[in-house]
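## Example record

The block below lists the input lines for one assembly entry, exactly as stored, with component labels intact.
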Amino acid sequence: MKLLGNLNWDVTPFSDAINDPSTNTFVAAGAASLVIIGAVSVLILLTWFRLWRPLWRDWLTSADHKRIGVMYIVLALVMLARGVAEGAVMRGHQAMALNGGPLSADHFSELFSTHGTIMILFVAMPLVTGLINIVVPLQIGARDMAFPVMNQVSLGLTAAGAALIMVSLVIGRFETGGWTAYPPYTGKVFSPGEGPDYWIWSVVPAGLGSMLSGINFAVTIYKCRAPGMTYMRMPLFTWTALCTAIMMIYAMPPVTVSSLMLALDRYAGFHFFSNDLGGNMMNYANIFWMFGHPEVYILVLPAYGVWSEVAATFSAKQLYGYVSLVTATMSIAVISFTVWLHHFFTMGQSASVNIAFGIATMIIAVPTGVKVYDWMATLWRGRIRMTVPVIYLTGFFILFVIGGLTGVILANPTIDYQVHNTLFLVAHFHNVLIPGVLFGMLAGIHYWFPKVFGFRLDETWGARAAGLWVVGFCLTFLPLYVLGLMGMPRRSPSFTDPAYLPMEYLAAFGAVVILGALAATFTTYIVSIRHRKWLAVPLGDPWDGRTLEWATPAPVPEWNFAVIPEVSSRDAFALEKEGGTPYAPVSRYADITLPRRTTMGLTVCVATTGTGFALVWHIWWLVILCFTGLLLTMIARAFATNTEQIIPAAEVARQHRRWLDAIAQNTGITRDAECTSANRGLAAPDEVIR
Amino acid sequence: MSEERRERRSYLIGTLLSILLTAIAFATIPLDLPRGGTMLLIGISAVLQVIVQLRFFLHIDLSRQKREDLQLILFSLLLLGIMAGGTIWILTNLSQRMM
Ligand code: HEM
Ligand SMILES: [Cu+2]
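Predicted structure tokens for the full assembly:
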């Protein structure tokens, strides 16, 4: 038995680059160096600015839902940088891929496999989970999640999966079978290497983490609402979070299970999905998409929630059609579990099975259509300000409708037979994922950023980023519809038809614009941090918000609310402002109990990453060590009794009164001056629009 | 104290019943029953085990039914029905067409 399992020096891309110098190996070695340089510079920067202690105390061990949410989003943005870079490399390669291309076929396959896995599970999911974490307790008047420590554990599990994918860039190779990892190709016979194992041990912890998040969100929304916050008074973002949470609970287990079954096939000689001995690989596609389809709605529903809040706030109007939006959200949540077969229309089942799922798929477009009309009606004759979230909303309206329409086209099995597995499909799903999910999350971050950090994001750079995203998206992905209709297969490392070239060039140019959009996005954050004094909105309500979270200071204190509010209507804060009675003084403050800091999540993260890595390389002693550590941590936690901290009433009162005094001395800001430095976060009364 | 003992006994009963039902499922192989009988037995013990776990571990019973618990169970049943039913439909259809 070898101490380090299958590990040796030859598995790194550096040795490849030395043994076989070529563009292909240099790109791989360059990517690996970037990971190492990135990690080392983070370590150096942390040491230089003496940030280790605050990082440990305020972030890594914090059980505060807002900080956990921010960590989710930071993780997502780091992974987004890698994912977009990979996308751009693929577009660049394909533009040169007439009869060849700079990268090897296997390398190209690794790229689309990591890109897809990262974008769905480690960008889109953490963005959604992070935003829900930050916003939902504030919107329902709660002090934290129902299970703050489990929240940390979920983050730890997701981060472990992400860490393993990052490691795969430096040590060994990732899987080449796409983000879906269909067997039998990913079985031991056809993929004997470590690639699919990396995929499995990244996906399994992330799947578990998301399921736990789902349970946490659902219980929080069911059990921790402020008095008077009935279901039909909940803000729409919370409604979408509830539906997403319930979907996470039911949709994540299938992928965890199918990945573990694949692991049993690979590690223990089982035959769930093998070609022989009674295996059935078609059942893998079936189980995977039982997760895969609901997943896309898990991602897009919270974005719909963001659009609802953004449309209402930035047009200074009540949300149009609240009940229909809630109903549509619930319908989508249920119907999305009945359409999974549209991802494998061509697998060979009969036409009657196909058409049943095809019709279900077309039906699911109806509730989304309802929503689009509701948002437009909300904006109608409103007091619209063209802030960054509204720019994203505009891009979303036009582009998402196109993406949705191509989805309805694909829902038709006869058409799907023609264009499945072409770039038409790639264009379609990017067309819903980028303008839908990514724009939604970027808009949501811009909208709620001041609540968490106490200052707004720079509008100029934000607008530049939004514009570049919209233009870059169009240039990169609309040409792919054409290529798809011309018959170009997806996942093609090279092609022989020169007719593809013009559109390929256009798409590659678009990818450059998207890189610019990404850079502008990060610049927005950096510029805003620099100008944070100028952008500060300590009074907490920079956009004349309508829901509870805006009735708190910014940054919002760890305990969220000095006293838990009583809710008597929908849009409670907006009504109070209309009635002229917001910010009522509090006569009696009480001690507040909050969860204590703990290293639980971090320990789970480290132990899970270790277990995964050891499993990938068959280092059995390390598997046993890390897994036992994981179990012991959980058991030890069950015996911990000192898990809460008390914030004394006097401290709460002091901070709250200081905030109320500052409000009393401020004259407030009109909607016209919202994006100037005069905005300190107090909204002056405005004309009421109904 | 008696409350705690009752709880503990309920967990014990649940554990024993779960072990028993699992053992029955495994026993079908050495017993070498006819194929249909094996499937039926495994199916029945699986459903029974779900009920046992709901009753003894998740404390869901019919008497002090809370509305949210009931909603949750009904919704779970709906989704399980969709997933299991859909799978059976799809895979039997595929299998027939490969005959
Ligand atoms: C932002 C710039 C992006 C670029 C330039 C880009 C580019 C690409 C390219 C070139 C492919 C391979 C297409 C092929 O199979 O021929 C791909 C696949 C994919 N992308 Fe993106 N993408 C981007 C963003 C995203 C986002 C935001 C998501 C999800 C939230 C996403 C999800 C996927 C998935 C799931 C695949 C399929 C992977 C597979 O074939 O297994 N992409 N992308
Ligand atoms: Cu789908």
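Chain B touches chain A at residues 68, 75-76, 78-79, 82-83, 86-87, 89-91, 93-94, 97-98 (CB under 8 Å). Residues A 293, 296, 339, 342-343 surround copper (II) ion (ligand 2) (CB under 6 Å).
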